[in-house]
Inverse folding.
């Protein structure tokens, strides 16, 4: 089973503590291919054919990204708009993604209590992710419940999150993602 992780972080090396830890852990799985969109396409000129081919060869697709302004980073949205097109992802001849597992794995800077009715953001992260759930349904993919971890922003002197706490939670998130992926791989063997 091939797993494609579509990674969208604009500065993984310098500005991400959590996503860097998560990706380091899961890319050790031999069936995993990490497609780092910002590194591959710094000019936003996406090789649609290559991306579609990678998805066709995968049985499991993971979107890994930091939760930005109630959704995904701009590169991931651009990638989705270019790659998930009529005739490939949906429409009469667009069944190339049908039956593939789809998981959203995201890190959220805020705390869980801010993502609920009455909180600063008024809605849950899962509610904000509904467009991606609908995308999975439209394309015939199997939508897995999102893997969401909160309080993942480390910016000294701006947020109260401690570096060691963010690192701990990132490792815990990575273990959950690792276990989820290896569990899916094992289920296809037996």
């Amino acid at each position: 089973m091939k797993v494609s992780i579509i990674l969208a972080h604009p500065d993984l090396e310098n500005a991400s503590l959590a996503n860097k830890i998560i990706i380091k852990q899961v890319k050790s799985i031999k069936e995993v291919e990490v497609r780092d969109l910002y590194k591959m396409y710094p000019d936003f000129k996406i090789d649609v054919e290559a991306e579609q081919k990678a998805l066709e060869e995968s049985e499991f697709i993971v979107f890994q990204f930091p939760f930005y302004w109630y959704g995904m980073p701009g590169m991931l949205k651009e990638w989705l708009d270019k790659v998930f097109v009529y005739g490939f992802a949906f429409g009469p001849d667009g069944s190339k993604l049908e039956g593939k597992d789809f998981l959203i794995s995201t890190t959220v800077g805020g705390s869980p209590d801010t993502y609920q009715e009455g909180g600063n953001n008024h809605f849950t992260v899962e509610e904000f992710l509904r467009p991606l759930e609908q995308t999975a349904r439209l394309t015939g993919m199997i939508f897995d419940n999102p893997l969401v971890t909160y309080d993942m922003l480390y910016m000294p002197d701006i947020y109260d999150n401690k570096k060691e706490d963010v690192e701990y939670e990132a490792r815990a998130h990575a273990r959950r993602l690792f276990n989820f992926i290896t569990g899916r791989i094992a289920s296809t063997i037996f």
